[in-house]
Amino acid sequence: MSKRGGFIMGVTRLYEKLPLDRIGVLIGEHGRVKEEVMGRTNTRITVDSTTGTVIIEPASPNTTALQLMKARDIVRAIAYGFSPERAMRLLDEDQVLIVLDLRQYVGDKPNHLQRVKGRIIGEEGKARRNIEEVTGTYVSIYRDYIAIIGDYESANIAKEAIEMLIQGRQHSTVYRFLERKMYLEKRRRMRELWRKPY
After folding, report:
1. What is the pTM of this model?
2. Which residues pair with 4 in a beta bridge?
């Protein structure tokens, strides 16, 4: 057992739970997806395909806390319905995963949940597509969860827009809110760039 950077090899472990129908997605054809996640995060991932329990641990004493967290985020993103390709975006340092449990907003009545999911998806997927395009995020609607992948600011703007839809605000109001917030966010980023000394 070697200890380095706060990790004790063989002791430090993160646990996640995958829905059984998402196990195959995480493992991938011939184990390709799992291998890629392990390779890119310097971790070891063990999947129990009967319970859906996933164990993530350092692959070497050089594995960093950030790599361990990123591996966990990717596993969680796949658990919440993202494709492996979209989940891999979390490898970028500035990308975050935000998860909303719809039951905390509308209770657990199936017809309420269905109606709210319908509002977030929109006609032929239009609402979700608009949120993704305007904010540059990915949005997954899986079971009773909404998950968002994006940079911190954009993901939170997308979250606010989704919360507005859950509250019953009109789609047009939400789209205007999104356009305004992203416009202000882009301006803020431009100002930051100008301020940076070279």
Report:
1. 0.90
2. 7
**pLDDT for position 198:** 60
* CA proximity to 133, closest of 119, 154, 117: 154
d(C-alpha 71, C-alpha 65), whole Å: 10
Decide if 167 contacts 188 (C-beta within 8 A).
Answer: no
**pLDDT tens by residue, 168-182:** 999 999 999 999 999
Burial tier of 30 (Cβ tally within 10 Å: 0-12, 13-18, 19+): exposed
Please give, one letter per residue, the 3-state secondary structure of the chain.
CCEECCEECCCCCEEEECCHHHHHHHHCHHHHHHHHHHHHHCEEEEECCCCCEEEEEECCCCCCHHHHHHHHHHHHHHHCCCCHHHHHHHHCCCEEEEEEECHHHHCCCHHHHHHHHHHHHCHHHHHHHHHHHHHCCEEEEECCEEEEEEEHHHHHHHHHHHHHHHCCCCHHHHHHHHHHHHHHHHHHHHHHHHHCCC
Give the pLDDT confidence of 99-116 residue by residue, as tens digits.
Answer: 999 999 999 999 999 999
Degrees (nearest 5) of the Cα angle 112, 17, 36? 115
Measured CA to CA, the distance from residue 16 to residue 194 in angstroms comes to 42
